[in-house]
Amino acid sequence: MSPGSPADALVLCYHAVSPTWPAALSVTPEQFGRQVGRVLSSGYDPVTFAAAVQARPGEKVVAFTFDDAYRSVLEQAHPVLDRAGAPATVFVPTAHAGTPRPMAWPGIEHWLGGRHERELVPLQWPELSDLAAAGWEIGSHTQTHPRLTTLDDEGLRQELVASRETCEQRLGQACPSIAYPYGDVDDRVAHAAEQAGYRFGAALPGSPRAHDPLRYPRVGIYHRDRRWRFEAKVSRPLRRARSSAWTGPALEAAISRSKFPL
Ligand SMILES: [Zn+2]
User: Fold this and answer.
1) Between residues 207 and 71, which one has the greater pLDDT?
2) Which of 101, 167, 237, 247 could staple 175 via S-S, CB 3.0–4.6 A?
3) What is the pTM of this model?
4) Ligand 1 centroid to residue 56 C-alpha, Å
5) Which residue segments constitute the domains of the chain, with CATH numbers given?
């Protein structure tokens, strides 16, 4: 493997952890606890996203990352990780964090008004500050959670710069990491992120630039990823194949059609 290959560091992308929310982006506390135990008992050392991207070749590290800053990250995931002595990373949409209002954007807004609406309420800044003090990394997830590739240059710059500045002002520390909403990143967006002061960017699988720290591939874990599906997703051979320019696109297409036995 080449230096710093993504297959050496396992970066998992979660969203919410809830015993009752049936959303695809939410896993149950039991499911999450099993997955954390499985990974850590396999010898992975838990680190933040920024540390995982900078891991040395052959270093067996895992980063548990959470997009969107749902309250359940603190209420359900944090106790599990705390017991395991593992830090994690939360990527925060800064225009939403700190408000009492449920978050809403395409993909989650259909949960508004129903009995699971409370799941959409974001963490507050003092809570994020406490997590940072406990060793967690707090990164940007832009301001308003747009598809960044659809924005013009000025809109893109605003989302990237303002969210980094808000994180830094609220938490009193540098914010070198960003997760692109929907994993939506291309060359222009990655370059703009670098210009905006980021060093590390969290993407999703299928990135043609698997070795670029500003487009670092993560493994998305969802409601249906139980047992052998989870095992398959975190396996090193499959992660290598998914990040390969040769086999990655075909594998991604098969996975998206659910014809691949994940
Ligand atoms: Zn998101």
Assistant:
1) 71
2) 167
3) 0.91
4) 28
5) 9-256 (3.20.20.370)
